[in-house]
Task: inverse folding
């Protein structure tokens, strides 16, 4: 195989690989969007919880430190990121579980997409992963297209080799960036250093620490 044919084969492999990667990313993003939309719709459709009665024999002393009395409902309701366990009669933290997000982020096949953050509803961080992924793919495609155009319009082999080197370098940089983000995601989720979207007792959007 001549050097020219080898370069053509590399270009074809790169283009097919990027197309498959983009299709997988779009499928993954679509699935997560449907899951997140269904979850949000279920949360919005819930009615307001009944108030928790005050301690008997008092004007109105809530039974737990995580509860606050509201005149509008005539009872107590949990503070942000807390809920009341009526069986154990105690306050417990409320929020997104960190285990499912950690499992998804730890698997390379899904972690490179930032799926752990998608699982917890942090679409801003998930968008960073997708931006790096799609931006890197676009840059590699640009280099591959320039390499192909220069090869058609010019007989300068050194110029074509230069674009091939640039394309490979871009691929290496994207891989390093995604690997760094993947490891960072595992660390911050395992240490519960990020907060996830949640709702208060009224159904308003809030941010709460991960639990579990």
Result:
């Amino acid at each position: 195989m001549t050097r020219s044919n080898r370069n053509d084969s590399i270009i074809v492999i790169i283009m097919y690989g990027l197309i498959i990667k983009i299709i997988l990313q779009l499928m993954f993003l679509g699935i997560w969007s449907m899951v997140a939309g269904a979850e949000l719709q279920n949360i919005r459709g819930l009615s307001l919880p009944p108030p928790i009665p005050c301690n008997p024999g008092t004007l109105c002393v809530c039974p737990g430190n995580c509860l606050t009395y509201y005149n509008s409902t005539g009872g107590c309701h949990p503070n942000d990121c807390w809920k009341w366990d009526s069986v154990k009669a105690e306050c417990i933290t409320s929020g997104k579980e960190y285990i499912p997000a950690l499992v998804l982020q730890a698997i390379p096949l899904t972690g490179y997409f930032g799926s752990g953050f998608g699982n917890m509803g942090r679409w801003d961080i998930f968008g960073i992963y997708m931006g790096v992924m799609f931006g890197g793919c676009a840059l590699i495609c640009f280099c591959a297209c320039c390499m192909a155009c220069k090869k058609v319009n010019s007989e300068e082999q050194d110029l074509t080799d230069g674009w091939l080197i640039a394309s490979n370098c871009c691929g290496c940089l994207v891989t390093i960036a995604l690997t760094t983000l993947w490891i960072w995601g595992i660390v911050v989720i395992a240490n519960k250093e990020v907060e996830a979207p949640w709702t208060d007792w009224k159904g308003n959007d809030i941010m709460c620490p991960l639990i579990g």
